[in-house]
Prior knowledge:
By secondary structure, the protein is of the alpha/beta class. It is built from 12 helices and 10 strands.
Amino acid sequence: xxxxxxxxxxxxxxxxxxxxxxxxxxxxxxxxxxxxxxxxxxxxxxxxxxxxxxxxxxxxxxxxxxxxxxxxxxxxxxxxxxxxxxxxxxxxxxxxxxxxxxxxxxxxxxxxxxxxxxxxxxxxxxxxxxxxxxxxxxxxxxxxxxxxxxxxxxxxxxxxxxxxxxxxxxxxxxxxxxxxxxxxxxxxxxxxxxxxxxxxxxxxxxxxxxxxxxxxxxxxxxxxxxxxxxxxxxxxxxxxxxxxxxxxxxxxxxxxxxxxxxxxxxxxxxxxxxxxxxxxxxxxxxxxxxxxxxxxxxxxxxxxxxxxxxxxxxxxxxxxxxxxxxxxxxxxxxxxxxxxxxxxxxxxxxxxxxxxxx
Length: 358
């Protein structure tokens, strides 16, 4: 009799899906699962592996018109946070890995990130424009606590007086409060904190290795109290899971000092559709079909929509209801607040790392 594979605690994805670029694929057969169960062996190795890489460039131009950033920088590829919905999972396939468990377990570390950033900022052709840390994967994921690549990058931005934005869902950002405060003096930094739910059980299932809800709200409050401009991304909105939390969440972040809130509707593009569908049948079997149907309703009957300007916000009745709730929430709780524009005027005088005197 086939043995059901146990839910892998501490991970988002519950399997490795085939890489679309590979000629061959593999599957876990029931006889193998039975053998592992009898022998008491693990089906897969759940440990995180760090892989050193040395890219030629580190600052990426973002060509998507609806992402809200011009340039991004990601010191890590793959993310141990394991958020089940993460759009970045698909990018792991370009490195020859799976968008499933591999994305959470095989973390590529860009060891020469700081050197490449310095070279970029000193280029005579480079004109200051905000660069966003974590456009793809979180720059404050667990391994950053030891490696401190993000901290060194922030020191580099400060040295060259260059504007930087940060997107994260990890309270580790507070470790670098000393640098953030120095950047903020010249309006050179913004932090966009991701808070998807106020429910800790929901957070644990959706984002297994991230900071707790309580810790993220504390992080928001500490950033705001230290005059670091901070907004919140409630992303993604997943119908049937967190779509009912919009107003209470916006009230909570407003009470803790957020200057704004943004959102996206979940879209399960590429390999994520299969990964998410497998996960929800195991993690939330009582509502799996309902959630998947409602996600499809937001994207014209599909789990994904790739049309620019529509893909992030969705379409149809559910998407419109979400949009209206955010309009009400912003007016009720965040009226009169806005994120200040980042300062791009100082960098030219600091291209060599110190202010020009003449």
